[in-house]
C-alpha cells in the first residue's frame, strides 16, 4: 500500500499543491533588486559629478585661451568675461555670445591679478570661492594664466 501511495501522480489533497512563489522568495528578490538599484544610483551620481567637473575644466581652459587671444590682439587684459563676447573693431568676439554658466549654474569668475596674470575659475558645486587659488582639496576649478 505504501508503494501505491508513493507512485501516485496526482496529489491526494489538491489544496496543498504549491503554486507560485513563497513570501521568502519574493522578499529575497526584492532585496536583491533594491541593492542593485542603490548601487546604480551611487555609481551614476559619481559619474555625473565627474562629468560636471570635466565640463568646468574644459570651459575654464576655453575662457583662458580666449583671454590670451584677447590680450594678444588688443594689447591689454579684458575687464571681464562679458568683454570677450563682443567684437571690438576687426577683432573678436573671442567667446560665443549667450549665457556662460558653469555646470552648477553659477557664473565663471575672472580675477585680474596684475597686467600679465589672471585667474579664471568656477566656484564649484557649493558656489563659494573657498580655494584661495591654491586648493586641490576644494570643489573649485580654476586656471591661473600668465601672458
Portion in beta strands? 5-15%
| Morphology | rod-shaped
Q: Cα distance, first to last residue?
A: 102 Å
Instruction: Note the run of SSEs as H and E.
Output: HHEEE
Helix content: 25-40%
Q: Reading side by side through the largest sheet, how are the strands ordered? A: 1-2-3
Question: How many individual β-strands?
Answer: 3
Number of helices: 2
Mean pLDDT: 85
Oligomer: single chain
Report low-confidence residues grouped into runs of 5 or more.
none
Structural class: alpha+beta
Instruction: Report the sheet with the most strands, covering strand number, pairing sense and barrel closure.
Output: 3 strands, antiparallel
Task: Output the radius of gyration.
Answer: 32 Å
Describe this structure in words.
- It is built from 2 helices and 3 strands, in the order ααβββ.
- A 3-stranded antiparallel beta sheet has the order 1-2-3, covered by helices on one side.
- The chain is of the alpha+beta class and 147 residues long.
- The longest helix has 52 residues.
- It is 39% helix and 11% strand.
- The termini are far apart.
- A hairpin with a 4-residue loop joins strand 1 and strand 2.
In short:
The chain is an alpha+beta fold. It has helices at 2-6, 23-74; strands at residues 109-112, 117-122, 141-146.
Present the secondary structure layout.
Layout: H1 2-6, H2 23-74, E1 109-112, E2 117-122, E3 141-146
Antiparallel strand pairs: 1-2, 2-3
